[in-house]
Specification:
Elements lengths: L2 E2 L6 E6 L2 E6 H4 L3 E3 L14 E3 L6 E3 L10 E2 L27 H11 L8 H17 L2 H15 L3 H17 L3 H10 L7 H9 L6 H7 L9 H5 L1 H16 L17 E3 L10 H4 L2 E3 L5 H31 L3
Parallel strand pairs: 4-7
Antiparallel strand pairs: 1-4, 2-3, 5-6, 8-9
Helix pairs in contact: 3-4, 3-5, 4-5, 5-6, 10-12
């Protein structure tokens, strides 16, 4: 039966296929380890979870497919002559699916997860961390994912998946302190649907910063000045919002009922062993809601035109000045 590895001292000794590894306690206590010879219905932390985005209920019911990050200590590993020549894992990798040489690369990386490595290995470890976010050691896993994002967050897929998992698990766990930490350490470059749902549930409308980060997600929005002249654009946007709504905020929570927003399957987690209703649940999707899209697009394009006019006026004034 798989279990979380209990750390002893500052380092934990892990024996895999007769090889002894020293893994930092921080990492070791988050691993899933099995003495089975291969995945089976008995191995892995088998779970079936039902989640409610709005009340945070997590209900564990039974068995689900095997945890892809599970380390099977009886499976062979082999040190390669040159680790740089070992082919990388494929999409949605698992420890059990690695070749013996790939297993060696992965286990060696676990001794220091800040090392540079193919992102496939990072995902194997990360899958188990997602499971901890939902039903295991939430705080240590949250911190470990933040660490991984610091050293491997340049990969867009990992950045997207890990941010979604942190955000949504903090909502499920009712941890506003962790949400604040996430937004402080990693403010989103663009607002995704999860951010909008979270803002709505928290009772927020969208200010200028939120609107600017929403712009990349709206195809009809003209983006020249938001990219080239962000400060001028921000001032123009604040003026447009204030003129139309009385304050520099686009109505969101105050304008729409969550019941009128169409639901669309949304990918919240990367771990493919999670049930579909957890990994890709049907959630309210503001980016498919025409009234919201039309209003946000109109305001952003008005800010575009105002910025264009003000920049042209400034250039004309500069040309008319005497030398």
């Amino acid at each position: 039966m798989t279990s979380s590895l209990v750390p002893v001292g500052r380092k934990t000794h892990l024996t895999v296929a007769g090889n002894s590894l020293e893994v930092p306690d921080r990492t070791a206590k988050l691993l899933f380890v099995s003495h089975e010879t291969s995945p089976s219905h008995r191995s892995g932390i088998g779970i079936s979870i039902s989640l409610d985005l709005f009340d945070g209920r997590i209900h564990i019911e039974g068995l689900s497919p095997d945890e892809p990050s599970t380390i099977y200590t009886a499976m062979a590993i082999r040190r390669p002559p040159d680790a740089t020549l070992v082919p990388p894992p494929g999409y949605f990798p698992s420890y059990a699916g690695l070749t013996p040489q790939q297993k060696w690369v992965y286990l060696n990386w676990l001794t220091d997860v800040t090392q540079v490595v193919d992102i496939g290995y990072v995902f194997i470890y990360y899958y188990g961390l997602e499971r901890h976010l939902l039903i295991g050691k939430f705080d240590p896993a949250f911190d470990e994912i933040i660490l991984l994002r610091r050293y491997h967050g340049e990969n867009r897929s990992f950045d997207s998946y890990s941010r979604s998992a942190l955000l949504n698990s903090a909502v499920f766990r009712k941890r506003p302190d962790r949400l604040e930490q996430l937004y402080r350490l990693s403010p989103p470059q663009r607002l995704m649907n999860s951010d909008l749902v979270l803002a709505h549930q928290a009772g927020y409308d969208l200010g200028t910063e939120g609107m600017i980060r929403l712009a990349p997600s709206l195809q009809p929005v003209k983006k020249r000045y938001v990219n080239r002249n962000p400060e001028e654009y921000k001032l123009a946007l604040a003026a447009i919002l204030s003129r139309q709504f009385g304050e520099p905020y686009l109505p969101l929570a105050s304008a729409y009922s969550i019941s009128e927003i169409p639901k669309v399957a949304d990918i919240l987690f990367a771990n493919i062993s999670f049930p579909a209703e957890v990994r890709t649940p049907d959630l309210p999707n503001f980016l498919c809601f025409e009234p919201f899209i039309e209003q946000a697009t109109r305001v952003l394009n008005l800010a575009h035109e105002r910025t264009k006019e003000e920049l042209a006026a400034a250039r004309k004034k500069a040309r008319s000045r005497p030398d």
